[in-house]
Structure formats: C-alpha cells, structure tokens
TrEMBL record:
It comes from Neotoma lepida (Desert woodrat). Interacts with KCNMA1. Residues 1-47 form the signal peptide. This is Leucine-rich repeat-containing protein 55. The keyword Signal applies.
C-alpha cells in the first residue's frame, strides 16, 4: 500500500488573481478584506489537521474533556499546545501518539481508566511541562517513563488506588520538576533514589498512602527531613499503616530514635551470651522434664500401692 500524502491547497498568486478579475476599476477595500480573511483561513487549515469530532479547538487548545470517549482522538492540529482528554473512559493510549505534536505543553488525562502507558510515549514531547494522570488505574511507574520529557515541571499521579510501585529511575532526568503529587495511592514504600535526582523539587504530596514505616523507609524520611524547609510536603496527611507499634503515627513525626533498632549490631560477646543462655535453657528444660517424669512415676506407684492395701 502506498504511503498517504497530504493534499495541499494551492493559492493563486496575488498578481494573477487581480489580472483575471473582470472588474473595470480597482478593487473595493471590503473585497480586499474578505479575500485576505479567506486566504488566512485556507493557510491555517493547511497548517494542521482539522479539529477532531466532539472536541473544541481554539488558540492551540484542544478540549476533548467529558465526551465519554473510549479512545483518544486519532488526529489533532499539529500545533496543539494544550490537550485535555479529562473525564472520559479512555483505557489506553497508542504508542507514538504524541510523536507529531512537538508544541505540546499541557496534557490532561485525569479521570480516565488508564492502567498503564506505552513505553516511549513522551519520547518526542520535549516541551511538555504539565502532565495530569490523576484519578486513573495505574499500577506502577516504570523506569524512564518520562524519558526525554526533560521540560516537565508538574506531574500529578494522585488518586491512583492501585499504584503500588514507583521505579527508582522513574523520574530520572527531570531536573526542572517542581511539583510531584503521589498522594492517595497504594504506595507502601518509595525509594530514595526516585526523588534525590530532582534538584528543583518544591512541592511533594505523599499523603493518603499505606506507608510501612520499617527500616527501609529511614533513608527517605531522613532525606525529607533535610529538605522540609525547601520542599513543601503534606506532612499532616502522611501516616504509617505499619508496623503495629507506629500504626497511625504521622510519617514525619518519626525521628532517628524511631529507627534505633535498625542499627543494632551484635558483637562476639553477644553471640556467646545468647549461645550460653540457649544452652542453659535447654539443660533446664531437660532437667524439668526428667523431674516431671520421676514425679509422675512416683505418683503412679503410690496410687497403685494404695489400691492394693485397700483390697
């Protein structure tokens, strides 16, 4: 099958147009205005694809929100800067969907049914600054998910209840990222490596997750405490769901003292003492069982002798 070719509308040259007009005199100013408006309209329509059905397009903003769409619109104007697909039923985005839209700055995909995004979706979205993926069904954020989208300033991944894992290299290279929202998901753990490569981070939202505040969380909490003056976090909403001894405690209330047990190390003397105690306990257990056996045997003989005397 041959490759598809775009048909271009050829406008006549200005001189040729006026030469072919049968008017006896110079053109009227009103006719000139109409001609230029029509020419501008033809040139604009030739510059990019027409507005998709069920969407509105104006000033490089394409709004397809709240249209009950089950899939993304196939063709968009090439100069689209702001694309809203929010409040639909979109379950998947095809690979390479954003390849042709080099001017895209804002992408709103909130409140859909997305479970994952194709690899390399943002490969050509070098100017993308704001991305909203909240209120979806994402289960994980893979490594290099936002690769090449180095211009991202705001990422919203909140309210993805099945979001269980964020890869340590998920946000790699996003040096301009200022706002990151991971609140109200299913995260129990977050690697420090996922955040420490974000030098421009100003706002971090992590509340509403079932955090397990064990020893593995200490590096992240220590990093957050050191950045708390520069990084705004929803400290009141972030709570521990485990272990039981810290359940319900605010995440940021945990101090180094809370993780003191994580740094306990046993010396050779400690191991020898534990071995000695174990040995003593085992000997005591054997002795106790021996005494109980003798006692039971004596009681049995005494009971039998008593019965014989009665007879």
């Amino acid at each position: 099958m041959g490759s598809l070719q775009h048909c271009c509308c050829q406008l006549p040259k200005m001189g040729d147009t006026w030469a072919q007009l049968p008017w006896p005199g110079p053109p009227h100013p009103a006719l000139l205005l109409v001609f230029f408006l029509l020419a501008a309209g033809v040139m604009h329509s030739d510059a990019g694809t027409s507005c998709p059905v069920l969407c509105t397009c104006r000033n490089q903003v394409v709004d397809c929100s709240s249209q009950r769409l089950f899939s993304v619109p196939p063709d968009l104007p090439m100069d689209t800067r702001n694309l809203s697909l929010a409040h639909n039923r979109i379950a998947a985005v095809p690979p390479g969907y954003l390849t042709c839209y080099m001017e895209l700055r804002v992408l709103d995909l909130r409140n859909n049914s997305l479970m994952e995004l194709p690899q390399g979706l943002f490969l050509h979205a070098k100017r993308l600054a704001h991305l909203d993926l909240s209120y979806n069904n994402l289960s994980h954020v893979p490594a290099d998910m936002f690769r090449e989208a180095h211009g991202l300033v705001h990422i919203d991944l909140s309210h993805n209840p099945w979001l269980r894992r964020v890869h340590p290299q998920a946000f790699q290279g996003l040096v301009h990222l200022r706002d990151l929202d991971l609140s109200y998901g299913g995260l129990a753990f977050l690697s420090l490596e996922a955040l420490e490569g974000l030098p421009g981070l100003v706002t971090l939202q992590i509340g509403g997750n079932p955090w397990v505040c064990g020893c593995t969380m200490e590096p992240l909490l220590k990093w957050l405490r050191n950045r708390i003056q520069r990084c705004t976090a929803d400290s009141q909403l972030a709570e521990c769901r485990g272990p039981p001894e810290v359940e319900g405690a605010p995440l940021f209330s945990l101090t180094e003292e809370s993780f003191k047990a994580c740094h306990l190390t046993l010396t050779l003397d400690d191991y020898l003492f534990i071995a000695f105690v174990g040995f003593v306990v085992s000997i005591a257990s054997v002795a106790t069982n021996f005494l109980l056996g003798i006692t039971a045997n004596c009681c049995h003989r005494w009971s039998k002798a008593s019965e014989e005397e009665e007879i």
